[in-house]
Each structure stands twice: as structure tokens, then as C-alpha cells.
Design goal:
Elements (H helix, E strand, L loop, with lengths): L1 E8 L3 E2 L2 E2 H11 L4 E6 L23 E8 L1 H14 L4 E6 L4
Antiparallel strand pairs: 1-5, 1-6, 2-3, 4-5
Length: 99
């Protein structure tokens, strides 16, 4: 089994919809076993800009992580499209054991 983590900003859009919602619907449509979206309190990426949306008066967008897990064959089927739509952000993949 593989676990995929997608690191995005909450306000990222794809086709005028939130990117994380688009991806969740895409994963459901492709019968991925399970997925969750997590909102972070703070974070930064390769540009080293600290996103801290909870500071008063700050208009930063919240960093989020979308995680999904499935068999390698199904993950490899959906990854090419995810790589196309995630221009900024990070995708990680690792092997996991289902217990």
C-alpha cells in the first residue's frame, strides 16, 4: 500500500473550485480507499514564507495537507493527474503497512 501526502494552501483553486475539494472528489470518483484533509496552524514551503493565518490582521492562507492511502496500482493511476494540477506545493509518497 502507498500513502500520498499533498501539501497545498487552503485557497488554491482548480477550475474555480477549491483545489482540495476538487482532489477529494477526484479521488472518490477513482474509488481511492480513503482520504482526509488536515488544516495546519502554521507552515512554510520552499520559498520560506511563513504562513501564520491565526495572527490578527494577517491575510495569509492556511497550509493544508491532503492524505490518501490505497494499493500501489490505484495510487499510480491517479498520481499523473495530481502532478498536473499541483503546480505549487509538494507531493510525497511512501510505502505503508495496513494492520
Amino acid at each position: 500500500m502507498l500513502e500520498v501526502n499533498l501539501f497545498l494552501d487552503e485557497n488554491d483553486l482548480h477550475q474555480d473550485k477549491s483545489k482540495h475539494e476538487y482532489i477529494m472528489r477526484y479521488l472518490m470518483h477513482n474509488s481511492i480507499m480513503g482520504a482526509s484533509v488536515f488544516s495546519a496552524i502554521m507552515g512554510y514551503g520552499h520559498k520560506h514564507h511563513l504562513h501564520n493565518p491565526r495572527n490578527l490582521g494577517n491575510v495569509d492562507e492556511s497550509p493544508i495537507m491532503l492524505l490518501f492511502i490505497d494499493e500501489e496500482e490505484k495510487v499510480n493511476k491517479v498520481l499523473p493527474h495530481l502532478k498536473e494540477i499541483i503546480k505549487e506545493g509538494l507531493i510525497t509518497v511512501k510505502r505503508v503497512e495496513r494492520i
